[in-house]
Write the structure tokens for this entry.
Amino acid sequence: MKTSIKLAIASLFTLAFCFTGNAQFFKKLAKKAEKAAERTVERRVEQESSKKTDQALDSVLGTGEENRKAPNTTKNPTGGNDSSNQGGNTPNSTESTGTPETTGPKSIEVYSKFDYVPGDKQLFFDDFGNDFIGDFPSKWNTNAGGEIVTLGDSPQKWLGLKSGYSIYYIPNAPQLPEEYTIEFDIAAVGIDRNTSSTAQLQVMLSNDEKFGVGSNYAFSEIPFCQYAAIGVTVENRINGKREIRSVVKADLRDEILDTPHVSIAVNKQRFRLWINEVKYIDVPQLVANGAILNTLKFHVNGFKDGKEQVFISNVKIAEGGVDLRRKLIAEGKISTNGILFDSGSANIQPQSMGIIRQIYQVLQQDSSIKLKIVGHTDADGSEEANLNLSQKRAEAVKNALVSIYGADTGRLESEGKGESEPVGDNSSADGKAQNRRVEFIKI
């Protein structure tokens, strides 16, 4: 009995000791948990504060992170010796328009303020439609190699550019005049938050006809970096001396992932550059006075080989300098292939609005003028389909003048002539592009 009592007392002391030890243990554990919670709260507060700060800055800069698109990883380049679709046309369409499909509608307000006007006389066009996938394009030259590919399921062909000291140019391109425009599309694969701040596509105009920079040049560099907003660089050299180098503040992280369209206008010394509908560069005296920069060159640098890739397509050079408004008033008729449409449809592409805006300015200036709008197509597809498409496109231009700019519908007529009046050879990409045009005729 005494033994049992002693055991019981010993057990009670043991339990008391354990409870005391456990209490101390749990007390320490609670302290640690409390400190950990405090650190978690502090980190969360820091993160939220940083997020709010970023949002506030983005609201000022117009580049909110909440609207940031994820990098497009669905476009996988397809090379090889695939000889299918060598014409480069989209299935079930009547023609190849030379511009990629847009990812969604943009506001009419954005369209109407786009002030780029393409040249009215096409000098060069290449959508690589006559080149085989896996080959280097026949109209181009390079010191680094490259090949024609398709991206994803689209039949559109692209020229892949290699990073490093690589130059791509058009050796037999026509002499560039004093005033001209350049347009092309960009596609990017593998671009993400780790893409270098030095990853850029340089577009150069030079008096060197091969792989050098020349004694006179003007170029702009388009950034691909995703972790920071890297501006657009512009630089020149005049008689062997650099006079301008500047980085214009811009955030292109969203645009560069969404197959952007680039437009450049050179008017003697003046150099302007738009990406999609926004003008980023406008330098009055970037080009040397009297210098003829007769070679267009592309150069990419700062990309990770095998992971990050840059492609171009739909390269177009057109002679500019003619004010369409003055010509229409003086001659009573103008023809332009600068009004572009989505493939096989009458949807006007945004880069066309500058021309339509000029036409409205003519109507606004002289209230007595009435115009007939005439649409033309190339010869791809049936005559009936092309006639119908040209009529719809002429009507679409008329509707844009009325609905966007407020033109009087009673002063406008529309007509389509399909493929019946070609001005170029329908067997070539250049000729087809010339035939896809819109005329404005005073009546």
About this structure: The CA atoms of residues 118 and 338 lie 6 Å apart. Residues 2-61 form the longest helix (60 residues). The helical segments are 2-61, 108-113, 324-331, 353-365, 383-403, 429-435.
